[in-house]
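User: Structure tokens for this complex, please. No commentary.
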Amino acid sequence: VHELSLAEGILQIAEGAAQSEGFARVATLQLEAGRLAGVDVHALRFALETLAPGTVLDGAEFQIEQPEARATCIDCDEQVWITARGDACPRCGGYHLRVIGGTELRVIRMTVHDA
Ligand SMILES: [Zn+2]
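Assistant:
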């Protein structure tokens, strides 16, 4: 299951940070899952909540944002926001877009409980 392996990756990031920064628990974990990342946010949240007990993520609040994707239009040379692959350019209506963002899943912020 895709989201479960993503959640395991996020847990590893959190545990690595806990070791290097010396905190015991994450209070809130803020994630960004690009619209084009193909991530099912509900499944990801469920996977994180399943993995959390007994780890640094135990009791953490998960905030998952889904920003729109960024693309460059080859026809009008503008940078535009799109919500899905295959969208037309919102400026000129062309379909020659090169996706430049919105395909990644990343941790953008963690707040932690000290000690
Ligand atoms: Zn355009």
